[in-house]
Design a protein that fits this description.
The protein has a 3-stranded antiparallel beta sheet. The chain has a two-stranded antiparallel sheet with strand order 1-2. It contains 13 helices and 9 strands. It folds into 2 domains: about 120 residues, Orthogonal Bundle (Arc Repressor Mutant, subunit A); about 130 residues, Arc Repressor Mutant, subunit A. The protein is mainly alpha-helical.
Length: about 300
């Protein structure tokens, strides 16, 4: 009987993962990790191989690097706390807390009194995901372009998905116009290959809903004009953007924007078409740049105080 129990236990051991499993293939992990990071011998700091990566990737790279640096004795610990990550990434705590919370929830990292450590048996999977992150974005973009071509060929109109090309020079020009570098702008916008997302919490402003609508619209349209060469969007797209920002009341959106027609022009569509469009004016562009500069200054002040 004992032999059978022992046999079952040996079979089921395959379900159990520990740090020994990570160490058993350490050379392979280090080889893959070299594609995404390196560690400064003098400081133990983790440096990403690529720049301008998504914040979620940057956080995970820091956690992976800290684990290896701690193992090598280049750091006093294998974990990172919020202050460590804020210093390494120059990002405010609110954005980091959400990302770290998600990683804890999916059991990728552990949280011991605010010290976040990657779970050793997750490192292999996480490194693979980070290595493939850039390729995945390219595949998604390619699929979207193929989908667009197919729709055009069949005579269908593409209403909900717009393929756009990110202009790096446009980002640089936006930075020059606002006095913010790419990192500073990334606290306000999340740039992707075919989309722009406003990540500054406009809905949390202590302002009337109509003001939040104007601010959200100005940020989005200004970002689109500089970084994607687009200054006119459909009303359905703008409504979706404002909803994603957490602005609860958008039923009176057209009324709010018409009251600011010097900044944003409301254009009617063709007869029989319910979807209209909004276009950024020159004064509106200046208002958008002024707002971005103001937000950047406030965020920089928060970081300095922290």
């Amino acid at each position: 009987m004992e032999n059978k129990d022992e046999e079952k236990m040996n079979i089921m051991k395959g379900l159990v993962k520990s740090e020994k499993d990570t160490l058993a293939k350490l050379a392979e992990l280090v080889g893959k990790a070299q594609k995404i990071l390196f560690i400064e011998q003098e400081t133990g700091k983790t440096i990403p191989v690529k720049t301008n990566i998504p914040l979620s990737d940057a956080v995970r790279i820091q956690l992976v690097g800290s684990y290896f640096a701690g193992e090598m004795g280049l750091r006093s610990k294998k974990s990172c706390n919020l202050d460590d990550l804020k210093s390494a990434l120059s990002v405010e705590g609110r954005a980091l807390s959400r990302l770290l919370g998600d990683l804890v929830k999916n059991n990728s990292i552990s949280d011991e009194n605010g010290e976040y450590t990657i779970k050793p048996y997750i490192i292999d999977t996480m490194i693979d995901e980070l290595v493939e992150s850039g390729n995945t974005n390219k595949i998604i973009a390619k699929k979207q372009i193929l989908k667009r071509k197919k729709q055009i060929a069949s005579g269908e109109e593409q209403k909900n998905e717009v393929i756009r090309t990110l202009d790096e020079n446009g980002i640089a020009k936006l930075g020059e116009a606002t006095g913010l570098d790419r990192l500073g702008l990334s606290h306000i916008f999340d740039f992707d290959t075919n989309t722009l997302k406003v990540i500054f919490p406009v809905a949390n402003e202590n302002e009337a809903e109509s003001v939040k609508q104007i601010h959200g619209a100005l940020l989005y349209l200004t970002g689109l004009k500089f970084c994607y060469g687009t200054q006119e969007i459909s009303s359905s797209e703008l409504r979706a953007v404002l909803t994603d920002l957490g602005i609860k009341s958008i039923d009176n959106l057209s009324t709010s924007l018409k009251a600011n027609s010097t900044s944003i022009i409301h254009k009617k569509g063709l007869r029989g078409c319910n979807d209209t469009s909004y276009r950024l004016t020159v004064p509106g562009e200046l208002e958008g740049l002024k707002l971005i500069k103001k937000i950047g200054g406030e965020l920089n002040g928060q970081e300095t105080n922290n």
